[in-house]
Amino acid sequence: MQEINLEEVVSRVMARLLGGTDDGIPVEMSARHVHLSKKDALELFGSELTPVRELSQPGQYLCSERVRLIGPKGVMDNVAVLGPSRDESQVEISLTDARTLGIKVPIRQSGDIGGTPGIILSSATKIIGLERGVIVAGRHIHMSPEDAERLNVEDRQLVSVNMEGKRPAVFRDVLVRVHPDFRLALHIDADEANGCGCDGSTRCRILGPETEASCRLPS
Ligand SMILES: [Zn+2]
Cα of 186 to ligand 1 centre, how many Å? Predict the structure, then answer.
């Protein structure tokens, strides 16, 4: 006979009924930033990247180095560089930034840079051209396998979330990303965060199938 941990089942059901442990998902805005390959970092700065601060996802950090983005219509200075180095450089900007720079940029998940446009990057002394790698990052939720089980979702699933900011909104097509190293957080860009009045304390909640259906317009 299969043994059931009654205490655990009861506490999980009670938590769900009372909403006691569910205080929503923290919302984090990703400002425009750059990931550099080792080769590109060396070319721009003459050395490897210098970590200054840990970011919310374990292993990710802000570097002291900054770059300038140069597009056909405009430039953006003082753009953050995040570490560690990647196999290929990637630039993550908002759709507003893309317009300012004068580049047509697709919405992609991080790492999916096939067929994306390039850009020119410069440091104080050097300039390099990327042939590809500029994206507007698709919104996504990082979570651990335990959070995924609690929230009843799976890795790579698309969900809708209710944004509980100053200007409430529903975001659809939010990608769930599950990994033991991930810390629970919704990642959106500056356009999305400002659009719904988010600040550091904003939370969101995943909508169940019924609520989600009622948010869609009849086809
Ligand atoms: Zn993220």
Answer: 7
In 3D space, the residue among 114, 112, 111, 117 whose CA is nearest the CA of residue 130 turns out to be 117
- DSSP bridge pairs for 142: 177, 185
Encoded tokens for 35: 């990931």
- Cα distances from 192 to residues 4, 14, 29, 101, 124, in angstroms, run 44, 34, 8, 19, 31
User: What would the pLDDT profile of 18-47 be if each residue is shown by its tens digit?
Assistant: 544 568 999 999 999 999 999 999 999 999
| Residue 141 alpha carbon to ligand 1 centre in Å | 7
Distance between Cα 73 and ligand 1 center (Å): 28
Q: Rg (Cα) of the chain, in Å, rounded?
A: 20
CA of 13 to the centre of ligand 1 (A): 30
Domains of the chain: 31-137 (no CATH), 139-214 (2.40.40)
Ligand 1 centroid distance, CA of 175 (Å): 10
17's CB contacts (< 8 A; 6+ apart) are none
**For 138-150, what is each residue's pLDDT tens digit?**
999 999 999 999 9
Distance 1 CA to ligand 1 centre (A): 43
